[in-house]
Amino acid sequence: MTRIPVAVYAEDPVLRTGVTHQLRPRPEVEVLDPREHERAQVSLVVVDEVDDAAASLLRRLRRSSGTRTGVVVGRFDQDALQTTIDCGVVAVVRRAEADQDRLVATAVALARGEAVLPGDLLGRLLDHVSRLQRGVLDPNGPTLSTLTTREADMLRLVSEGYDTAEIATRMSFSERTVKNVLHEVTTRLQLRNRAHAVGYVMRQGLI
Question: Where in this chain does the record put each HTH luxR-type domain (predicted)?
């Protein structure tokens, strides 16, 4: 059996060591030294979240390597799903579920050209594709793709009477992020304020 050469990327040395330690004993895979990453057939990027730095790495891997890339991630939301799709990622594993067998199975699946997604993320992906298709069929009509999931969730909470601090707490964002997101929505849709934005998206059936 030919071992699958795997490159592990992680800014946090603890995360890199943890994943490497789980993979190294297994006969199915060969964990490469960083100096040998050009030999990799599979790349695993281990991060807390898909932030700007992680997205930059994923784009670089897509441009400069012939590997199939998976992400082992702590927190993952709809915006992260869009980013990973754009960066050509074909496997997502939550860190809480990333035991040795799951990591090896993911590497093997990637080497075979298969995609790996948790069930709930697959549902989100199918919903995302459906929204894109509706936008293509009726590009001038307002659809859910008018809003990101984060924007829709925030406006839904506004419609339920939550203030900025409460929304920030419920969605695990800073108050500044909540304000910026809501300002972006009202500006992009050319609306006057939050109440106007909520009324508009409810009339259009977007929340």
Answer: 140-205
The secondary structure of 24-60 as a DSSP string is TT-TTEEEPPGGGGGG-SEEEEEEEE--HHHHHHHHH
User: What's the CA gap between 181 and 159, in Å, rounded?
Assistant: 15
pLDDT band per the 50, 70, 90 thresholds, residue 57? very high
Tell me whether strands 4-9 and 42-49 are parallel, antiparallel or unpaired: parallel
Indicate the pLDDT class of residue 148, thresholds 50, 70 and 90: confident
What b/e sequence results for 48-62 when a residue is b if at least 16 CB atoms lie within 10 Å of its CB, and e otherwise?
A: eebeeebbebbeebe
For CA atoms 26, 27, 28, 33, give the dihedral sign: positive
pLDDT at 95 exceeding the cut of 60:
yes
Q: How far apart are CA 63 and CA 189, in angstroms?
A: 34
* Residue 203 CB-density burial (10 A; 0-12 exposed, 13-18 middle, 19+ buried): exposed
Pair 44, 8: CB distance under 8 Å: yes
pLDDT, average across residues 80-97: 84
DSSP secondary structure code for residue 1 in this structure: -
